[in-house]
Structure to design on (470 residues):
């Protein structure tokens, strides 16, 4: 063997006599010669595939305000198509800003005095405990994600509405929550995603997507038993290319509902969104939750960024200072660059999470409940790890756990983090845990399997057209 090595070694380059032998890299000019021709090919492929999912959605659901051959009017869009729109926008085309807009939609409702005052009185968000604020935030995320990501009329969607209606019903019966409060909150979930995405993302919403968002949230409002009568005073504008039509109302289609709700909410904000202390208290508690898990210096940047993304009216209502002008300019520049890069250089996302994330954990919550307890867990978290399963990885060796340890914030499985997971009937304030089961069952029965998901809304009777009457 030694003789063989002696024979071989002189034949190798002098740099290769140290083992292991590494082949020399080709010159940089050669590498660039191979890579440069690939750049235009990449750009062409991005151009071809970037709008792939939007085109597929339009082909699957050919509804238009000006229907051509093979197309149908917007009034014939069924609820199943509207839910397909929600799934596409929230998990593939705009997962980050769609969900961020929903978070800010919830925060924006705190600028309404009647809403913030109730939250202060119930101590749900005014508690000094960061964990209490985080628990309320997590419970809201559980309920909203369940009816957003599960088909209308499914068991999980029906259970989410049943629990939500019970929690709200306690205060509605005491006249502490008005229909206007409910309608305004719904309007923020309808209007904020298109507004944010039009400003910051790589393309605006299409007409089909706006119609789908409107129709889906009309179903949400009906499931929550919100009255849409205030919208009667706000007729939608004519469809593009059509003359004014007095018969067109918010009931006509999802696009009409979107525009009527938009007009109503703007008038409502002008009337009620005024400076008040409860709104300041609630908003500051929420911002503190979002920055409490970050290093101090980064937390200050995130705080200034958050208030920079609020409009003047909201900041005034919440008694928040105007941020330095540089924050607004830098945010706009950064997000404009991001949108340009995504639009021209990035292939479309195939799923919310990459291949390395197990299929079971690719949603906000685990798909399959625990076989023993029936509970589900959050697959991810942003602030505090409420409802996150304390696996060995999550608790001890994940990057998030190490960051939490270093900052002194809770990790999955810590007290008050509800590491055992969640049941829909136990979400909400501690005072309501285990209560309302009879009302929950009635509402679940009203919704489960009784939603008109395939029928055009225009063919359904007046009232709550998306539900089969029990």
């Amino acid at each position: 063997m030694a003789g063989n090595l002696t024979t071989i070694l002189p034949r190798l380059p002098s740099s290769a006599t140290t083992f292991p032998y590494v082949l020399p890299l080709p010159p940089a000019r050669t590498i660039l010669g191979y890579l440069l021709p690939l750049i235009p090919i990449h750009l062409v492929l991005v151009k071809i595939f970037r709008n792939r999912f939007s085109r597929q959605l339009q082909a699957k659901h050919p509804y238009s305000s000006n229907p051509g051959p093979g197309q149908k009017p917007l009034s014939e869009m069924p609820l199943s198509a509207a839910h397909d729109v929600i799934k596409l926008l929230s998990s593939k085309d705009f997962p980050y800003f769609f969900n961020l807009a929903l978070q800010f939609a919830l925060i924006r409702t705190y600028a309404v005095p009647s809403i913030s005052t109730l939250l202060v009185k119930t101590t749900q968000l005014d508690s000094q405990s960061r964990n209490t604020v985080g628990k309320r935030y997590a419970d809201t995320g559980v309920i909203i994600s369940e009816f957003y990501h599960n088909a209308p009329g499914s068991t999980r969607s029906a259970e989410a509405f049943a629990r939500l209606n019970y929690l709200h019903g306690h205060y509605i019966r005491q006249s502490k929550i008005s229909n206007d409060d409910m309608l305004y909150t719904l309007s923020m979930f309808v209007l904020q995603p298109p507004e944010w995405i039009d400003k910051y993302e790589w393309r605006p919403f299409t007409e089909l997507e706006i119609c789908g968002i409107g129709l889906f949230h009309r179903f949400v409002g009906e499931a929550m038993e919100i009255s849409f009568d205030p919208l009667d005073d706000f007729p939608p504008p004519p469809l593009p290319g059509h003359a004014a039509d007095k018969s067109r109302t918010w009931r006509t289609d999802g696009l009409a509902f979107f525009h009527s709700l938009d007009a109503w909410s703007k008038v409502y904000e002008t009337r009620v969104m005024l400076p008040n202390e409860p709104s300041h208290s609630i908003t500051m508690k929420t911002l503190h939750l979002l920055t409490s898990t970050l290093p101090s210096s980064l937390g200050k940047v995130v705080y200034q960024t958050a208030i920079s993304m609020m409009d003047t009216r909201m900041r005034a209502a919440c008694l928040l200072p105007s941020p330095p002008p540089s924050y607004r300019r830098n945010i706009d520049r950064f997000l404009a660059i991001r949108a340009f890069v995504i639009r021209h250089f990035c292939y479309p996302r195939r799923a919310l999470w990459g291949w390395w994330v197990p299929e079971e954990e690719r949603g906000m919550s685990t798909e399959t409940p625990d076989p023993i307890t029936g509970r589900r867990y959050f697959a991810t978290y942003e602030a505090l790890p409420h409802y996150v399963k304390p696996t060995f990885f999550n608790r001890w060796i994940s990057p998030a756990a190490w960051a939490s340890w270093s900052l002194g914030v809770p990790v999955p499985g810590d007290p008050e983090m509800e590491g055992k997971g969640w049941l829909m009937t136990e979400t909400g304030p501690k005072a309501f845990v285990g209560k309302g089961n009879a009302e929950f069952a009635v509402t679940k029965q009203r919704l489960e399997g009784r939603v008109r998901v395939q029928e055009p809304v225009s063919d359904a009777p007046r009232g709550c057209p998306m539900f089969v009457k029990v």
The longest helix spans residues 179-200. Strands lie at 63-64, 72-73. The longest strand covers residues 63-64.
